[in-house]
Structure formats: C-alpha cells, structure tokens
C-alpha cells in the first residue's frame, strides 16, 4: 500500500465508513487525498503514543500562545552559551571573494559580527533571491467569539476541530479554539484560528466553515438556531505563503554556508520546524548531538573570565568602508552583499 493514499488503505481494513472518517480526520488528521499510507500510519502512531502523557488528550498548548516556544528555546540556547544581539537588523553580508562563503554580517549600526554560518528566515530574503521560488499559500482566519463551539459544563478548554472538505477538491479546515485560561484572549471571550491550504482567497476558503459554526449576525434579534451558535465579535481573513517545502537550491545566489528556515506552515504542531532545524544543525555540526537535554543547574560552572572580542566574533568598532577593490551590491528589500579579498 506504499503507493496508495491513507484513505484508500483504510478502506481495505474492514472498517465502517464512520470509523474510517474518524481515524482520518480526528486521529491521524491528515489530508484525505494527498497523504500516503506511510504518512497516515506515522501520524496515527504519534497520536496514540502521546495519549495519557500529560492528561486525557495527546495535546499540549503553551500559556500565552505559541510565542512562548521560541522564548523557551532562547533560554535553553543561553544555557549552552548562546549570545543574543537584541534590536539589531542585518544590513549586509560580507563574503569571502575566494570561497564565496559568508564570513561576517554588518548590522544597521555598522557593527561587524563574524560568523561561520548564517541562518535566516525566508521572509527576510530579497525579491531577487526568491525569484525562482514557487510558494504554496495558506488561508487563515482569526475570530474573537462570545462563547465556545463545544457545549460543555466547563468554559475553560482548548478545542481542536477538523472540518472535512465541504466540496470535492477543497481542503479540510482545522479549527483551534482558545479560552481565556490560555492567556491569549480576554475573559468571557474565545480566540479561534481557522487554517487550511489555499485554493482561493482566505475568505472564499474559510467563510463557508465560519458560517456553519458561528453566528455572523451582529444584531441581537436572530433566529433560535443562530442564537445557539457562538457570535463572532471580530474577524480577519488573510493569505500567507508557505515556504516549508522550498529547497535551498531554489534560492538564487546563496552562499554555501547560508541556510534558510521556513515560516509557519498549515500543519498542527511544530514537526516541520523541528525537522528542519535538525537537518540544518547536522549539516553544520555532523559530529554534535542535536538539542541535548539541559544540564542540572547544580552542575553548571560559571567562568568569570571575560571573552575577548575577537573570540566572541563581535567587533564594537563601526564597519569601515571596504577598499576600492571590493565590490558591493544591494538588492530590493534585502541585505547588501560585500565581497572582500
């Protein structure tokens, strides 16, 4: 069944249509037409392995939202000696003329920071660098509502819902509803995210699902059926590009030691980001362990000796203009590239 889709595989397992539907959309949570049998089985295995670890569901959600995960990584990185330059924008890359590799960056203050590798998120690259890149698109909607779509006694829960395609050829829509106890919205309100791969504009892709689940009528006098639905207090629809499947070779003129990370994708969780980080790490440091567990605080030894500026890769003096033999070029919306002997 390696060449079959997961939906076709489930049809051979003597399962009822309802059970097939439940496994596909509520356990594996994979696309009905695009996901292979192996992808579906791996997603099902992951779901089952996560059950009962921290509660009755396999899901965890960080308080204050997903922005806490990068902060957690920053703290972990700092424990291992990571240095952060806050409020510094990169103005240009300094390339070695002989090897073509990036050997330093210059920030908007003119400060030069030496580097063996440079990692950048896709949206920071110039238009000329991304000319040959073919991006997928994601349709998103963010709503603020007055009550939960899940009618239970508890008003404080995180709800995840997969809405199967309403029409053939359209994509399933994932709905995540957050309550005020997640510290992402005000009391007595709910924050709802709807996401799916784009086929049209975000409004055209997602509004049919919003109309099915929520009351869009702002007037108080509505029919009894609409009164039972959560009322939308505020809504925004937008499309964003998905760079998670872009190969490095698609970018034009990147030095060999410059790596590109993708932005958010349409999947649930952070599997793509973690896999991408591990891939880049292993290319740079093949002999090192990826993301080792943090040490016990009692085992950390603090060394008070100051690091020389040359050792840390930081140079506090403003960047001087390159010599007349150096070539410098800039691209629209991106950083300039300076070549040195």
TrEMBL record:
Coiled coil: none annotated. The keyword Transferase applies. The keyword Transferase applies. Residues 301-311 have a biased composition (Acidic residues). Residues 288-341 are annotated as: Disordered. It is found in: Cytoplasm, Cytosol. GO terms for molecular function: GDP-dissociation inhibitor activity; GTPase activator activity; transferase activity. GO terms for biological process: intracellular protein transport; small GTPase-mediated signal transduction; vesicle-mediated transport. SUPFAM superfamilies: FAD-linked reductases, C-terminal domain, FAD/NAD(P)-binding domain. PANTHER family: CHM, RAB ESCORT PROTEIN 1, RAB GDP-DISSOCIATION INHIBITOR. This is RAE2 geranylgeranyltransferase. It comes from Agelaius phoeniceus.
């Amino acid at each position: 069944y390696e060449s079959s889709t997961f939906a076709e595989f489930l049809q051979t397992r003597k399962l009822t249509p309802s059970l097939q539907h439940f496994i596909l959309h509520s356990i594996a949570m994979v696309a009905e037409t695009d996901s292979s049998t192996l992808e579906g089985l791996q997603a099902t295995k992951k779901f089952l392995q996560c059950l009962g670890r921290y509660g009755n569901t396999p899901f965890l959600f960080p308080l204050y939202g997903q922005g806490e995960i990068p902060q957690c990584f920053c703290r972990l990185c700092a424990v291992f000696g990571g240095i952060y330059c806050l409020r510094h924008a990169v103005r240009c890359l300094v390339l070695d003329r002989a090897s073509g590799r990036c050997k330093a960056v210059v920030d908007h203050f003119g400060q030069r920071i030496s580097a063996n590798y440079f990692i950048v998120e896709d949206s920071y690259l110039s238009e000329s660098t991304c000319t040959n890149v073919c991006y997928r698109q994601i349709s998103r909607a963010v709503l603020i509502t007055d009550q939960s779509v899940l009618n239970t006694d508890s008003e404080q829960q995180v709800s995840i819902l997969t809405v199967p395609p309403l029409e053939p050829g359209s994509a399933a829509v994932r709905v995540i509803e957050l309550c005020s106890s997640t510290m992402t919205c005000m009391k007595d309100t709910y924050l709802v995210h709807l996401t799916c791969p784009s086929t049209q504009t975000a409004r055209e892709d997602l509004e049919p699902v919003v109309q099915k689940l929520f009351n869009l009528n702002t007037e108080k006098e509505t029919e009894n059926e609409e009164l039972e639905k959560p009322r939308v207090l505020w809504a925004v629809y937008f499309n964003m590009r998905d760079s998670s499947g872009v190969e490095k070779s698609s970018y034009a003129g990147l030095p060999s030691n410059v790596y590109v990370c993708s932005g958010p994708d349409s999947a649930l969780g952070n599997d793509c980001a973690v896999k991408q980080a591990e891939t880049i790490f292993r290319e740079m440091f093949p002999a090192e362990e990826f993301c080792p567990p943090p040490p016990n605080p009692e085992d950390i030894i603090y060394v008070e000796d100051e690091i020389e500026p040359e050792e840390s890769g930081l140079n506090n003096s403003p960047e001087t203009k390159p010599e007349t033999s150096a070539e410098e070029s800039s691209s629209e919306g991106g950083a300039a590239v300076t070549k040195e002997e």
